[in-house]
Amino acid sequence: MDDETPLVALLRTWQSQTRELLTDARPQPHPEGVLSADDLAARAAALRRLRWTLLPRESRKRRILWPILREHLEDGDDVINELRERKLAFERPLVTLRWVDERSRLFDEELNSFAGQVLEYLRFEQALLPRVATQLPTAKQDDAMRGLTAIDRRPVVQPHPELPKTSWVARAVEPVAAVLDRLRDRLSTAPG
């Protein structure tokens, strides 16, 4: 199987778009160490675009791609746990950024922390792509492609990836977890 499957190509495209948005969100300060009002506005707009693209994509990957990785990679559980930890690591400073004064030193520190964590996450994901291309069956890759690129307007109906695989409790809790995920995604991707 070719290492550049459609699924891998999509994930690489999303990664490069995220890197570009990160670059836009981290403008170089002027010699005095401050940003102009125009630069602050551009940075805020770049952060909004980053929030509106990164968070929904990551949520969709978590729901659609992660269960497939867990099932088909030999160390799937470990891979998913590492992805989850790295995702949480960049979500924390992103939440803080929404409430910190954009001209403060804390904002710059949180922005640098966020950017560093996202880049670490992307490097880890990048290292997984050859395995995604070679170890995931073509049919599963096609399913993941359709799910990741589909317009999603209905509640999640597949099992929540963080619940046990076969427990009756999981089947009972899945709809609630799906609705809570959708609500969290809506609130975390709101403008501002």
Please report the first level of CATH classification, the CATH class.
Mainly Alpha
**How large, in whole angstroms, is the Cα Rg?**
18 Å
- Low-confidence parts: none
**What CATH architecture do you see?**
Up-down Bundle
- The succession of helices and strands, N to C, reads HHHHHH
Shape: globular
Mean pLDDT over the full residue set: 82
**Into how many domains do the coordinates divide?**
1
How far the N terminus sits from the C terminus, by CA atoms, comes to: 43 Å
How do you describe this structure in short?
The protein is mostly helical and 192 residues long. Helices cover 74% and strands 0% of the residues. Helix 1 packs antiparallel against helix 4 (105-135).
Molecular structure report:
74% of the residues lie in helices and 0% in strands. The protein is mostly helical and 192 residues long. Helix 1 packs antiparallel against helix 4 and helix 2 (37-72) packs antiparallel against helix 3. The protein is globular, with a radius of gyration of 18 Å. The model has no long low-confidence stretch (mean pLDDT 82).
